[in-house]
């Protein structure tokens, strides 16, 4: 592996420049006005895959954005690794909170600042470069397939459709995904659990037009006030989610597992200090780490209604809106939760308003095994480059496709992520450590090596 | 008065065209980007006042937008009427809900559609035209002064300062204001009571930056959820405002007065139908007409936070905001209510968030007498042109300057408004009946006539 590392060291500038080119493409899948850019990002990934040495590189069209596919099959008797990643990114607004423009990557304090630097362009692109290094050093030890999609940030709307139609093409022994984070560079960890998601949008209509709050105020249901009432009622005093049936299928985590979790290095004081908060807030009876991993939640991701410009306007608006999402844990089916939410939310609407609920997207929670050859290979790879074994950790984010791969392809995933929680993914000033980028490129070939070896 | 009416009939097109020129000026006082337009509207009003025959027309500079003044003093032994109006308008957004652009006036179904058509350019301009008619027909029966301001929609921030500095100039026997509405064209009414206002903006801060709702959701106070909790708690189950001390000074209205109010023609079914609502909502124990007139209220006029673009973004935002206003009734001091709100709102913030409250503006409630010569003159004027006596009515809107005129100038006001509640003032598609515009111009000289006569 030394030869490979030498080559990596000699190519660092180029590997950064290529990633920067990709980061400059504003491939925001959530907003149609960026659709040409999303397609441009797909083309870029395909071209780089080919250049790295992949065969059969092509864009598979879907009802939405295309899936980039490529492969290198060296020996049918060897195992096959399916690398998954995504080339789309979250919206970058609010733009004014970025210290540098989100689609003009720059390095500051040894971190790459750009939308998608960590989630997931930076982490996905490590795999293309690691593959190139193995090709150039003649050290690719097994078969590899790449499936890079463009709709992860909008719920992978068409990926299941694509996977179902191409089960033979995608046949593999493990799905390898770098789209998660570690505790810290000093405390490497592997994500073994991910929460599911149900994301909805609600609309509350009071009067059929905006009204003067003086002439009508007091007699007419104000949809903002009503929406606040309804949202407020979704938690009880213990900050439990107050939707009938919401917790019915939640897996109770054993005292042993909770005790093991409590061993993870974590400082509540540092957590609060990092976030500038006097206190945390969450479900009674659970620690902060438990609240973000083994417990389901409900958060409002956006709210708007009435006059939100400068100054004052005495309007009693016709409509108010909110985007609401729930993070789910294993055994909570996202379709069921979406239905429970919808039914409950409609049922609590007073007769003076009209309410609609529109599901956006959802995904199941996932727990990945730690007693598998794939997990052990990943742990050994990290040990080889970080100098210590990683901690297995259930975390809060969602990658709904992990359960889908298991269901449709009957293939388990390994979540070999190199980001940090502090990377500000989905936020202004997203960044990714230059160190992490190269550490990922260095670590991935070890995973290929160990996974190809007989146990 | 027949000669005057003939002249009016012959000049209708011109009177409409002039008003349209004024309506084309987007004089939005709440938004600094329109400041040149606001000044342009002031110049326009001054020029028209001069053209109509007023003397000493000038713009009085203030720390904000200027006050347009003009006068015609014919005889110191005659009474003096001080006409008040405003040339600024509410913001026009959301623009997309207008069926025609807000600053391109058009007549549809015999109504003038434009921002400010009813509030207050259309109603204010009636006075300039009525004055011109009296001048041209040599029938001005008393002295008249005009004071047209440009900051009514932002709380008349500098009017008191101006009035205090010019008490001698503004000395008069009555203030005449057309900035209110009637029950209907078939049921003319005169506003005798107006609610006060306290308008504030609140900001709730959770974490110091936007976060990924999967990674942090469940452990960190979401400022939108907290803001909803706080807003929701501002009403109790009876839809009473839940702020300690809020009702302490509210005048109890006598059973007799409530019985008289109940005689006003009002159909709850038509009200609900007009607003497209299945039900009204308001304070327990009061009728709809009472809720919008003799009772104080609290409404959210705007709310925003998190991701409000297209699609989905799983953000846990750093901040959430709301604009909140309270309509007040006589004896509730707006400064006291602003203080009560601020103190209470800060007190209910959980330790996991930081909250700030910023007052926007406020004004006192007012009740105008019905047993005065001025009121009786207004009632007779309406009887002369509408064919029936008007109903005295307390309504929900606020014109804080009415109490200020009484306090500073010791002069009572008459609220001779010609609009309708359905004019959609402060809303998209504001309009003003062509019939109402000309009926106002016709009625005002009758008020001048009757008010100048000895009783």
Walk me through this protein's architecture.
- 2 copies of one chain form a homodimer.
- With 455 residues, chain A is of the alpha/beta class.
- Chain A has 2 domains: 2-194 and 366-452, Zn peptidases (Aminopeptidase), CATH 3.40.630.10; 196-250 and 296-363, Alpha-Beta Plaits, CATH 3.30.70.360.
- Helix content of chain A is 33%, strand content 22%.
- In chain A, the strands form 6 sheets. The first copy, chain A, has a 6-stranded mixed beta sheet, with helices on both faces.
- In chain A, a hairpin with a 6-residue loop joins β1 and β2.
- In chain A, α3 (35-52) runs parallel beside α4 (121-136) and α12 (373-386) packs across α14.
- The mean pLDDT of chain A is 94.
- At the A-B interface, β10, β11, α6, α7 and β12 of A face β10, β11, α6, α7 and α10 of B.
Question: Which secondary structure elements does this structure contain, and how are they paired or packed?
Answer:
The structure is a homodimer of 455-residue chains.
Chain A: H1 2-10, H2 12-23, H3 35-52, E1 55-60, E2 67-72, E3 80-86, E4 106-108, E5 111-113, H4 121-136, E6 143-149, H5 159-164, E7 174-177, E8 181-182, E9 189-194, E10 196-205, E11 211-212, H6 213-216, H7 223-232, H8 255-261, H9 268-275, H10 288-291, E12 297-306, E13 315-316, E14 319-328, H11 334-347, E15 354-363, E16 366-367, H12 373-386, E17 391-394, H13 401-409, E18 413-415, E19 419-420, E20 431-433, H14 434-452
Helix pairs in contact in A: 2-4, 3-4, 4-14, 12-14
